[in-house]
Amino acid sequence: MKNKKGYLLIFGLLVVVFVILYSTGIIGRSVSIQETQSISANDVINEVEKIKNEVKIGLTMNEIKQLYGSNYTLVNDNGDLENGNDEHWTYRFLGDVNYKPAGPDHMIDEEGMLSGKAGVELFIGWKNEKITLFTITYLGTDKHIHFYSNVNGKIEESVIK
């Protein structure tokens, strides 16, 4: 009878240890980037395609505000972007509304993208209140950061990470 109680006690302790380890994430299922995102990969791809279809070189500030509103960040590039533009804006779509990137607004937020906190970022360069360039940054279905750019009509796409 004593051996049976001892085995039950050990079994009980093992169960408690496994429950603690599983609930803290030390053991158990692994969490992928997709599971931590509050948005689906399809939402991201649809948003990117929508932006590619709507945003064009030469659109005015008012036209962009009609499309996306006034909830943009006026980018302070500290003179880093030597492209002759008067002003730069960043719009953020589909990400955590409370998330603030750690780096400057003119840099790609790799940490936010990979963590799922940043969804799709649209960066716009303005000259005489017209678009001269825009970029779209997003996490692709392949779990890599994708970068689409249109600079004066020259379109390039690349994978960053």
UniProtKB/TrEMBL annotation:
Membrane-spanning parts: 7-28
The keyword Transmembrane helix is assigned to this record: yes
Keywords, sorted A to Z: Membrane, Transmembrane, Transmembrane helix
Entry protein name: Uncharacterized protein
Organism listed in the record: Brevibacillus parabrevis
